Amino acid sequence: MEKVLVAMSGGVDSSVTAALLKEKGYKIIGGTMEVFPDYEQKPLDEGGCCSLSSIEDAKMVAHKLDIPHYTFNLKEVFQKEVIDDFVNEYRDGNTPNPCIVCNKEIKFKALLKKALELDMDYIATGHYAKIDQNENGRYTLKKASDKDKDQTYMLYGFTQFQLEHTLLPLGSYKKDEIRNIAKKLSFSVHNKPDSQEICFVPDNDYSRFLEENYPEIIEHGPILDTDGNKLGEHNGLFNYTIGQRRGLGVSAPYPLYVKKLDEKNNAVIVGKKDELYFKGLIAENLNYLSIRKISEPMYANIKIRYNSPEFKAKLIPLENDNIKVLFENKQRAVTPGQSVVFYKQDTVLGGGIIKEGF
User: Fold this and answer.
1) Catalytically active residues, by annotation
2) Residue 156 · residue 199 · CB < 8 Å
3) pLDDT of 52 over the 80 cut
4) Which domain covers residue 339, as residue numbers?
């Protein structure tokens, strides 16, 4: 009998994941990660991924399924790999995506390591995506049947080894089907709202989180227009995002938007709306899934943020293993620090981190 550690967040998706795999005959244990830094711990009655209440919800579901449940203290590795990276990226004028880093470094690396140490064959999560193998024997990541819930953008950081040892049973289900299954199983979490916030920032106010816990990154500097004229002062690059209009504290005869965060000169660069559109980007830290590498120019569909639609682009390999991405049509607010993911139909080719737009 194959053994699976199900990463149970206390939500409906991971709860049903455990139920479906048990029904298929796997030997299941549940595991919940404890990752919250003590200085941001939520009260027990507040929800959210990896909170105290989520651990209790996961334990209740595990009890109902009659499976063992363990809590894994991963605070130290989470602090190092996710929170420190989050802080450093904002300090450097980028806009990070901590959920992508968490999937890569915590769920499918640190937690998978725990699973293998417990002699498990697989780890399983409640993500909406599919794992398959292509004709060359490479493991591939494919979009979920429920395109509105598809999470492949957040999962492009998988390695081949991780894909081989991961099960994603929700990939063929619709979200409402999962809630109905949970209701039939009398799971109290069947109508629990999906968590939307950054898990280690309980109020979703990342500026407050950074100011209170990492005040050393606060450094005031100029707000400049694209001609270099000083229009005002900013109160830390991390308080601004590409495309932002409100709250700039500067005046002009026309609307101004954040075009660039210049970390080198500690400056916020603002411009007119039409200056926010980019014809391409440079991506670094590439990870490939269904292919080994992009060695010659090719076309693909891409996404540059989780909730944005795909669009067509040309991918051009560079000598330093980075990729130049040329858009078919100009795109608004290309944001350094976010991820760009490449698709061929429903299959993830790979992805990387946006270094800069142009």
Assistant:
1) 102, 199
2) no
3) no
4) 276-357
